[in-house]
Amino acid sequence: FTAVQDILSLDATTFKVEDVLKLLESPYIRSRFKIKDEEALRTAARQAGIIFSMEGSTDDDTRYISWEYGLKKIMYGLCISGEPEYDDGNETLIPLDTSEGTEAIDRVRLMYFVRILHQKLADRNNSRTITQWAVYLQSLVEDMIFQAGEKDDDDYTKLVQFTEQMALLENNSNIEISFEVFRHSFLQRLDLEKKAGSFAKGGITFCSLVPMRSIPFKVVALLGMDFDKFPRKETALSFSLLNDWKPGDRNVKNNDKHLFLETLMSAQKYLYISYL
Asked: What's phi and psi for 145, nearest 5 deg?
């Protein structure tokens, strides 16, 4: 899910080197493109002078810090050894001849990764229906993150099911929307899906202290229970009409006492409280 969010949030206009190489921190993406040494590729990109923009412009000299120009230096460096300068007919550049063996293969894979990524970002420009965007998303995942049929993966299965449900819900809608609208809606839904599926799913669950959430666990921990933080103190507002408290009126302090009692009853073996 995180890899999908990072790709969808990538700015196609600037195409900054750090934003692109950050995607390779995902083990799914590294595995999909069979990249072994991410740090070596960061070094190569820095040596090639890549900073931002896919093609850049010669008018403001951004061409010489673009991906297109930097990747040409890397490519010619793999093919030509010991050449101080090389003119490919369009421009003169200095090949980056600083790799061999596995590192050289990784650089070829980096070039392939950048080409596929740039193509996927270019495909965003056309408006589509929700169903068509769901198809685009599945294609993006299979081409860049996880290839169907390689092995069973729970995250991939959940994502496919989620996009299929999304497409099914909007199947009768022929309204075309831009990528920005789709991305905003999809990431919100994905965030809600992650939150809904993350509570009490094993391991350590972090949550707020809210009514009716207390579920029996062997160990329950309360953090930040400082003397001035819990129970909370309610400060009456000058314009409040609730000057005289009556039974049934909301009382923050009593609510916190009730929450504490619920939590106490939920701890089956240990109750850990951290406070100042």
From this structure: -120, -55
Residue in 122, 189, 201, 183 with CA at minimum distance from that of residue 161: 189
3-state secondary structure (DSSP) of residue 220: strand
Q: Is 41:24 a contact under the CB 8 Å cutoff?
A: yes
- How far apart, in whole angstroms, are the C-alpha atoms of residue 200 and residue 217? 10
Task: Enter the tokens of residue 109.
Answer: 């894979």
Q: Which residues, including other chains, have CB under 8 Å from residue 30's CB and lie 6 or more apart? A: 24, 36, 38
Q: Give alpha helix (H) positions in the chain.
A: 2-9, 17-22, 27-33, 38-47, 67-79, 102-122, 130-144, 154-169, 179-198, 252-266
By the 10 Å C-beta count (0-12 exposed, 13-18 middle, 19+ buried), 111 is classed as: middle
φ, ψ at 247 (rounded to 5°)? -55, 130
Which pLDDT score is estimated for 118?
94
Confidence of residue 202 (pLDDT cuts 50, 70, 90): low
Question: Tokens for 178?
Answer: 């831009």
Task: State the Cα–Cα distance between residues 114 and 7, nearest whole angstrom.
Answer: 12
Overall pTM > 0.70: no
Per-residue DSSP letter, 24: G
DSSP helix/strand/coil, 276:
coil
Rounded to an integer, the average pLDDT of 29-41 is 91
Given the structure tokens 């169907």, which residue do they identify? 148
The answer to whether residues 45 and 21 touch, using CB atoms and an 8 Å cutoff, is: yes
Q: What is the pLDDT of residues 145-201, one digit of tens each?
A: 887 666 556 777 777 777 777 777 666 677 889 999 989 988 887 777 665 555 566
